[in-house]
From TrEMBL:
PANTHER family for this protein: D,D-DIPEPTIDE TRANSPORT ATP-BINDING PROTEIN DDPF-RELATED, TRANSPORT ATP-BINDING PROTEIN
InterPro entries: AAA+_ATPase, ABC_transp_ATP-bind, ABC_transporter-like_ATP-bd, ABC_transporter-like_CS, Oligopep_ABC_C, P-loop_NTPase
Keyword tags: ATP-binding, Nucleotide-binding, Transport
Family matches, as Gene3D superfamilies: P-loop containing nucleotide triphosphate hydrolases
MF terms in GO: ATP binding; ATP hydrolysis activity
Location of the ABC transporter domain: 12-254
The UniProt record lists the keyword ATP-binding: yes
Coiled-coil zones: none
Family, per entry: Belongs to the ABC transporter superfamily.
Name of the protein described by the UniProt record: Oligopeptide/dipeptide ABC transporter, ATPase subunit
Pfam families recorded: ABC_tran, oligo_HPY
Keyword check for Nucleotide-binding: yes
Length: 333
């Protein structure tokens, strides 16, 4: 018997976000055709190197950046960008930023920081109880010990928990966490990740976790989407992608992790620039499979240089956008 997966809660469909270049410079295609679904209770990790468009995609999913093309849907309905509708949406989908990037105001107490969202949304219930409840859920217990402290009186991990409490207080259905633990040291990082998992289990919270750290994706996510220059190039179940990556880019990213077997693949060529998306496969100028002649032997080298690849579906199916993988798979069957 096959069970139908639940409908996605949040979905990007053929999403594109382009930034016009200044003073005649070319347009930057930061997000360049992305389909991505996040289902209820699912944690999806969005990974990829700096500048590949992760934050832009996340901001667009939150309605903070309007798409140039394509659309974002929540609960099956396209986002409404009118002020009031967007405000209601931002209550249901919360952004969690990494704290030292300044998401906490140094002059606000923990209480004020967490209550801010309630005030913005005109909460009419018991504010003190809601703030204490959110702090406790974020692991700051007993909450009374923290209410009147200022950010500088907290550890990095505690500050990150305050940021998370500020999101939880609005009882969102989904959180988008952009590099939530990048600046924390290893032990605290583990605690914050455990917290996110607990929130998923206890509150059924869905999450999109943006990170350039594949180890983090491994520890937390159900599913991973690997992004390169504005597109998802490989996606699927986290265990499958991280133990048996098929896209040469994912293979290269994994090969440089300390625990990886074999020789690290050091990517050559220019770092990706969204104002100059290459023709053909967007990774071709840096691809180790093309450079080594393997793609040529499989008869796909021309396609690598000239033929664009289809946009991967947003759902749970494991997929990869690569001419060489397609040729190898066809040969194996
Ligand atoms: N407001 C903007 N105007 C112009 N270009 C932008 C703007 N925001 C982002 N970009 C460009 O879009 C590309 C993607 O940026 P983005 O911040 O989404 O990358 P990222 O994957 O989050 O990187 P990092 O891992 O460093 O956070 C970059 O080349 C960036 O310079
Ligand atoms: S399509 Fe070709 S260039 Fe692109 S990743 Fe695959 S082998 Fe490399
Ligand atoms: Mg970013």
């Amino acid at each position: 018997m096959t069970t139908t997966p639940p409908a996605p809660l949040l979905s990007a469909q053929a999403l594109e976000v382009a930034f016009p270049g200044r003073r005649g410079a070319a347009t930057a295609r930061a997000v360049d055709g992305v389909d991505l679904d996040i289902r209820p209770g699912e944690i999806v990790a969005l990974v990829g190197e700096s500048g590949c468009g992760k934050t832009t995609l996340a901001r667009s999913l939150l309605g903070l950046v309007p798409p140039t093309a394509g659309r974002v849907t929540f609960g099956g309905e396209p986002l409404d960008y009118a002020g009031r509708a967007l405000k209601a949406y931002r209550k249901r989908v919360q952004l969690v930023l990494q704290d030292p990037s300044g998401s906490l105001n140094p002059r606000h107490t923990v209480y004020d920081a967490v209550a801010e969202g309630l005030r913005i949304h005109g909460y009419t219930g018991d504010e003190g109880a809601a703030v204490s409840g959110a702090l406790a859920r974020a692991g700051l217990r007993p909450p009374e010990r923290f209410l009147l402290r200022y950010p500088h009186e907290l550890s990095g991990g505690q500050r990150q928990r305050v940021v998370i409490a500020g999101a939880l207080v609005l009882e969102p259905e989904l959180i988008v966490a952009d590099e939530p633990v990048a600046s924390l040291d290893a032990s605290v990082r583990g605690e914050i990740l455990a917290l996110l998992l607990k929130l998923r289990d206890e509150l059924g919270l869905s999450a999109l976790v943006v990170t350039h750290d594949l180890g983090l994706a491994w520890n937390i996510a159900d599913r991973v989407a690997v992004m390169y220059l504005g597109r998802i190039v490989e996606t699927g179940d986290v265990e499958q992608i991280l133990t048996a990556p098929r896209h040469p880019y994912t293979q290269a990213l994994l090969s440089v992790l300390p625990e990886a077997d074999g020789e690290p693949v050091i990517l050559t060529g220019e770092p990706p620039d969204p104002s100059k998306v290459p023709s053909g496969c967007r990774f071709h100028a840096r691809c180790q499979v093309l450079a080594s002649g393997e793609a040529e032997r499989a008869g796909v080298a021309d396609a690598c240089r000239t033929k664009d690849l289809p946009v991967l579906e947003g759902g749970g199916r494991t997929q990869v956008a690569c001419h060489w993988v397609a040729a190898e798979t066809a040969r194996a069957v």
